[in-house]
Design goal:
The complex is a heterodimer of chains A (250) and B (243). With 250 residues, chain A is mainly α. Chain A has helices at residues 2-14, 17-49, 57-81, 83-90, 94-98, 104-131, 141-166, 172-189, 197-203, 207-215, 221-248. Chain A contains 11 helices and no strands. Chain B has 2 domains: 6-89 and 166-242, 3-Layer(aba) Sandwich (Rossmann fold); 102-164. The two termini of chain B are 30 Å apart. The chains are: A mainly alpha (250), B alpha/beta (243).
Chain lengths: 250, 243
Amino acid sequence: MIAIIARHECTRLLHSAQTWIMAALLTALFGFLFLKHLEGFLDVQTQLAAQDHPVGLTGYMSVRYLEPLALVFTLVAPLLAMRSFSDEFRNHTHALWQSSPVSSMALVAGKFIGVFLVLTLLVILATGMLVSMQVFVSMDSSLIASATLGLLLCTSACAACGLFFSSLTQHSLVAIIASLSLLMFSWMLGSGNFTAAPMQSLAGLSIANHLRGFFQGYVQTGDIAFFLLMTLLFLCLSVTRLDAMRQTGR
Amino acid sequence: MSVTDPITDGLPHSLLEARDLGRRLSRDAAVSGISLTLNRGDVVGLLGLNGAGKSTTLRMLCGVLVPDEGDVTVNGFAMADNPLQARQHIGYLPDEPPLYNDMRVNEYLKLSGRIRGLRGHKLNERQQTVTEQCLLQDVESKLIGTLSKGFRQRVGLAQAMIHQPALLLLDEPSNGLDPQQLDSMRNLIMDMGRSATVILSTHLLAEAQAICNRVVIIHAGKLVADRPATGADLELIFHGATT
């Protein structure tokens, strides 16, 4: 059942002009950033080579090109997820799922997987540019793999967040504003230098703090767990919301 | 009226049992104390004025809305304990058909069948059957968003019956249809009544009299009459029950 719903959601997104416009703009952005930072590396590579621990092309591009893309995917993931439920509510199509032998859990999981599959294609597009350099120079595959994992985990958590806010309202604009506000707040928690203890613990909830290691080649279980738990939390909240709709009637 | 033998079928005689259903929407009681038993082969008209609680009752019967009080059993499955099994036996057409405007009719019917557990040959066969029953052959490859109100209602009906449910719940199926479309919708519902138990909400007395063999009247959220549709002046009964 989850596969059927995921396929439906994925097809719905791929049939939407909005998705293709977004994909085209992102491709242009990825291409621009990739070439800009590649040129930047060529300019400084002699200085980098003189350092005690010289940074290679992969290390440079991972931090300069891929790491900022995590912020781009934090914006894009809720944009793709925002219509998942809100459109169903607005167009009255949610009754089809509510009256069918489909559990709320299967519905949420199916919709999440559908959105995540489309986002995965975009992540592959972004990292694919770096991988394509393998044809010309030797690249650090493990660093690329770790950065890709970071991007996928961050995208998954942000998509789950967008899906949850989409389940709260029939207005997709409200859903996107709410999810972006929360996600941006989480990013900002990582940029402040907090000294007070409560604020330091809040910094533990920062997406940026948990992402940094992936782009430097350090894959920590704690960071993976953070993103998985964040994804799971928002998916569980979405299931709870859908079940509550049967109770409240709205 | 029963068209199947419960002993030979090994199935419960009553297809749907609702006991003391009550539901509050906002602060007011939308419906209260609704008890209803539907047997196999019944075609029941749910009558009532606007806002009487017909749609709320239907939404509770099909599991879309959880009742505050009472319980619903469909084909032996309690909606509260086995919601998925109970909903497997139900086809539901809400007052606003749940249609995806950007899907083609055949794609939509395939999706509706798949989420009800139909696969492969059986799915194709059922899609073909409901397309013919609902006279959708000419529009099956058209986008739903481009269809007229009458065709949209038919597509909604086709999705409700694609998995051959034992119980069909139709919320004002003839709402907004022109006289010709109304006539063909009635014929379609009467056809369906031969193979499934149907409960349809309407405020058109003539429609209930033409299609149904039993009428249930709801007024101010309460069930005020439950009687055969024929052999009585329905208009008189309706006015008596709702004033």
